[in-house]
Amino acid sequence: MADISLAQFLEAGVHFGHKAYRWNPKMFPYIYTERNNIHILDLVQSAQLLKEANAYLQSAAEQKKTFLFVGTKRQASALIAQEAKRCNCYYVNHRWLGGMLTNWVTLKSRIARLKKLEQDEADEIFNLLPKKEASLRRKELEKLRKHLDGIKDMETIPDVVVIVDQKREITAIRECRKLNIPIVSILDTNCDPDLVDIPIPGNDDAVRSIKLILKSLTDSINLGKSRIS
To answer: Which residues is 163 bridged to in the sheet?
Structure first.
């Protein structure tokens, strides 16, 4: 698989961290310098760690493991859905509902409800209901789709979780840690590397940075899947 050059990292702004006062001291080993009160990440390390993350995901894909992509911030939402679909994986890109993994039984019942409503919609049953009832069902369907569409075919909890923005997705991180699910995560300068298994130091706020890293991870999963005999 083609490695990403440092020039591509620079162009995508992967090296830009947060303002210096917002940093997490545990990220010190991955920080290269400070410019205009903004931390700059060490791209040589970012490139190496991305390479390691890619190798891990490729190997996991070859072992037919399942992946869940998580990223609910505005900049990541569309990219998470796009890249997860591209490698035929599951995703959560609107809101992480507490207990999505730790309370899997309850979540399965919500997924079953979503599928039932989708079937009703396909069979045009909504048209046979009183106007108010039909309106309520459509609203419920819309809400369930928004939150669960990316995981409605997930039969069991995933083997690996890929996360964009550790700070925002801290509930998902805690659930993964509780269930011993390996976490691959982009880490900005305000994150805690101790909470993830495979860190990728990088800018988790810029669309181009998120896109570059996610695309690379997805390519690795696809490569692993293509090697399954």
So the answer is: 70, 185
Q: Which DSSP string do the residues of 85-124 spell out, in sequence order?
A: HHTT-EEE-S---TTTTTTHHHHHHHHHHHHHHHHHHHTT
**What would the pLDDT profile of 113-165 be if each residue is shown by its tens digit?**
999 999 999 999 898 989 999 999 999 999 999 999 999 999 999 999 999 98
CA 93 – CA 147 distance, rounded (Å): 8
pTM over the 0.85 mark: yes
Closest among 77, 91, 225, 60 to 154, alpha carbons compared: 91
Q: How far apart are CA 197 and CA 210, in angstroms?
A: 19
What's the rounded Cα separation, in Å, for the pair 76 and 72? Answer: 6
Residue type, 27: M
Q: From residue 170, give the alpha-carbon distance in Å to each of 30, 127, 220.
A: 21, 41, 25
